[in-house]
Amino acid sequence: MNANASDIPGYTYGTSTVAASSATLDDLQRLKISAGFTEEDARYLRTAGVVLEDQVERIVNHWRAGIIAGIPHLARHSRNLDGSANPDYLARSNRRFQQWILDTCLRPYDQDWLNYQREIALRHTSVKKNQTDHADSTPFVPYSDIAAFLAVLNDTIKPYLEAKGDNESDVAHMHNAWCKSMQIQIALWAKPYMEIESAGTEW
Amino acid sequence: MNANASDIPGYTYGTSTVAASSATLDDLQRLKISAGFTEEDARYLRTAGVVLEDQVERIVNHWRAGIIAGIPHLARHSRNLDGSANPDYLARSNRRFQQWILDTCLRPYDQDWLNYQREIALRHTSVKKNQTDHADSTPFVPYSDIAAFLAVLNDTIKPYLEAKGDNESDVAHMHNAWCKSMQIQIALWAKPYMEIESAGTEW
């Protein structure tokens, strides 16, 4: 995917440690149709991936240091339980956050992708949060905050999509494809949140 | 809200028949912050409401007849269980769908709004679907399809926001405010879905 993906701590995409998703490829097909996600969108996402590839560090820094750090109820999920900073946890999860941008754009949406959607969601729930990085942080990220924060991701990705001088129409297509993928992903992430025993409490 | 809102069948916004939301005003405030929703967004939504007010019938017709009707796994939720059309159910829910656009733009996001968010979500789950209109349709709309379909709502609302000749910057602000509200609403709708006993099965 990219040359360094295998060096990313805790990044297990496509490996045997990732369990099968309970959402099926038929579910994914249904959600693509519900979101209006077509083959053209897949192509525009690949273009977006090329546009974003050398910007992912800056983008994630924008999201984390520029936005999340200023929102205490979001920032705490990357900090220790006592509120102190945990630079190692943050750095590791930032690397995966960067790779997630690339995976969103450049990976085929196949069984591996679907499995990793579930893995990502679980790592935000009490089932798996903190485990990957042996962190002592909040037990889960509320689903509702992730769903709401997508509005920020969708809005703030725009200048990075524009950054390589693509024409306005292509940028709009890339952005629309990105937004469709976000809705498919938040739909997929809902499933693990709904299936865990403490579903209502991790909303 | 609008002169005819009280004539809309099954529309119970602000009435004593709507139970209190289990999401609190503090939750709503948290989600607004997570989505980056500000007072400026609330103002742009009100402008959007004025722009959209005389277009809601056309917009909902676009969504229902133009898009949903062509997607069998979505269309069936407004049809009888045997697959036959139920024009009365469709017409009634379309009137409420139209009003929901106006409520999104023009209502204050207060306790009544929050309560009605829960009511809307429940009417898509097995707890309340079909009851309002005594319909014999599917028992629930999967949460995941609603989350995915937001991408379509967000994309297709654009020309209607542009229709009154507002300048490009104002239209972009209106659209961004709309998208933020959609993410807050899909976050709120997740709560009833997570709280019902059959949570996992109505994903």
Give structural notes.
2 copies of one chain form a homodimer. Chain A has 203 residues and is mostly helical. The first copy, chain A, has one domain: Globins (Globin-like, Orthogonal Bundle), CATH 1.10.490. Helices cover 59% and strands 0% of the residues of chain A. In chain A, helix 2 packs across helix 5. The first copy, chain A, is globular and about 50 Å long. The first copy, chain A, starts with 24 loop residues before the first helix and ends in an 8-residue tail after the last helix. The A-B interface holds A 27, 30-37, 67, 71, 73-74, 143-145, 147-152, 154-155, 176, 179-180, 182-184, 186-188, 190-191, 193-195, 199-200, 202-203 and B 27, 30-37, 67, 71, 73-74, 143-145, 147-152, 154-155, 176, 179-180, 182-184, 186-188, 190-191, 193-195, 199-200, 202-203. Chains A, B: One of its GO terms (molecular function) is heme binding. Chains A, B: This is Protogloblin ApPgb. Chains A, B: Pfam families: Protoglobin. Chains A, B: It comes from Dyella dinghuensis. Chains A, B: Residues 27-195 form the Globin-sensor domain.
Number of DSSP E strands of chain A: 0
Order of helices and strands of chain A: HHHHHHHHH
CATH architecture of chain A: Orthogonal Bundle
How helix-rich are the residues of chain A, as a percent range?
55-70%
The CATH topology assignment of chain A is Globin-like
